[in-house]
Amino acid sequence: MNYPAYQQSLTLIALIVCFAFLAGRIWAVQLARRRANHLASLPIYYGWYGALGALFPAMTLGLLGWFLPIPSAVLNIAIPLASFVGAMVCLFQISPQLTAQRRVERMIRWLLMASGVVAIMTTLGIILSLVFETFLFFGHPDVSVIDFFTGTEWSAQTSSRFGAVPLFFGTFFVGLIALVIAAPVGLFSAIYMSEYASPRTRQILKPFLEVLAGIPTVVYGFFAILVVAPAVRSAGDGLNDLLRPFFGGADVIATQPKSALAAGIVMGIMIVPFISSLSDDVIRSVPRKLRNGAIGLGATTSETLKDVVLPAAFPGLMAAMLLAVSRAIGETMIVVMAAGERANITLNPFEDVTTVTVQIVALMTGDPAFDSPRTLSAFALGAVLFCITLAFNVLAQWIVDRQRRRYAGF
């Protein structure tokens, strides 16, 4: 696609839409003044009628250009032309009797429905692409479904060994470390901000916590590899120094430059604002009547929190933890830079492990051949990871719906 010409087309379409809006509004006002008639709608709706009339043909041709083999040169000319024709057709229809508001609302309804259809089609496209390539992978003669889900040796880049157990073990191991780090910090901060902090303190602390959510994950990866990973290895070496006299001078803990603990700590820091924000919303959504009833019976703030608020919010808090886990196991940059690439099954957090996302990046790096089991295995890993995260999200949504029905009467 010719991107300079494409950008020129977008600029031209934006100008046509603005022109149609201004022309429609001005023309409607002039008609009302000349004929001393009352407009059927406000003048602004006539402007929006012209603008949407210019926008719809351009969007339709743009979508067709994604799915049909139409040359980009043709699209760069046809899309602005269709936008201009649509604007002229709508502008010539403007009259004092035209119910522009009703037509604009109908066009917006169609626009919203089209947006929903695009989102659904995109999701279906992602799922079908994963499913198709995954079936190709499992249909290869060198691949066994049983070995993929039960094998403990993964060497897809050097040999046809596709035992994915170490990958999923590393994924859940790092995710568990991240949850152990993030869950108490996020939950306690949410409890403080929702139950104990003054409104002014909350206005100061909450933006600081949410700043963490806006940091790019690659920056977290740099922080993990430059700061946390060396500190974790130094801590492991320090433990070895303390324990070595009791074990005959031998090292007790194997340490590596990259480790599951380093990746898990930084990933936990990354998902703290996620857990904190969701938990804060859940705790604040507990009906006020429950708090007032407990306080009316003589309970303190801490007793009300422990015996009333947290039990009532427990399903929502569990849903927040599940959503955080699904976010953690799908993380890529932190584990790529800090966890390692060795398929290793170990409970020692100071050793390096690999995860599903790390291997997907490694398999798709370079110029892969999309008909080889090596490349197709990345799609199989992605499909399984998609199913796992989808299961976490569905379970979390079910828990939230259950809590909503439970307290619907309050």
TrEMBL record:
Keyword Iron included in the entry's annotation: no
Domain ABC transmembrane type-1: 168-396
Domain of life: Bacteria
Keyword Cell cycle in record: no
Gene3D superfamilies per the UniProt record, alphabetical: MetI-like
Function as written in the Swiss-Prot or TrEMBL entry: Part of the binding-protein-dependent transport system for phosphate; probably responsible for the translocation of the substrate across the membrane.
Family label: Belongs to the binding-protein-dependent transport system permease family. CysTW subfamily.
Name of the molecule in the record: Phosphate transport system permease protein
Protein source organism: Ponticaulis profundi
Annotated gene: pstC
